[in-house]
Specification:
Structural class: alpha+beta
Order of helices and strands: HEHEE
Low-confidence stretches: none
Distance between the termini: 37 Å
Radius of gyration: 16 Å
Number of helices: 2
Helix content: 25-40%
Largest sheet: 3 strands, antiparallel
Strand content: 35-45%
Strand order of the largest sheet: 1-3-2
Number of strands: 3
């Protein structure tokens, strides 16, 4: 295998490849999105199923169970 030097455009290309692969293979995708990530997923067609509180190291965080489509 030959590896080449990383190029900044690689990140966008890999993200697109991952996104299209996941959405082609799986039709019912569920994620647990943080408040910060919620708009990212909404712009891509996910909808909120429920809001929930999760505890991490004694701190309660709000996240959202989201489903596509």
């Amino acid at each position: 295998m030959i590896l080449r030097t990383y190029r900044p455009c690689d990140c966008e290309e890999l993200a697109d490849l991952f996104y299209h692969t996941v959405h082609t293979v799986h039709k019912n995708i569920v994620t647990h999105a943080s408040i910060t990530a919620k708009p990212f997923f909404e712009k891509r067609g996910y909808r909120v199923i429920r809001e929930q509180q999760v505890e991490r190291q004694g701190i309660f965080l709000t996240n959202f169970v989201m489903k596509y489509p």
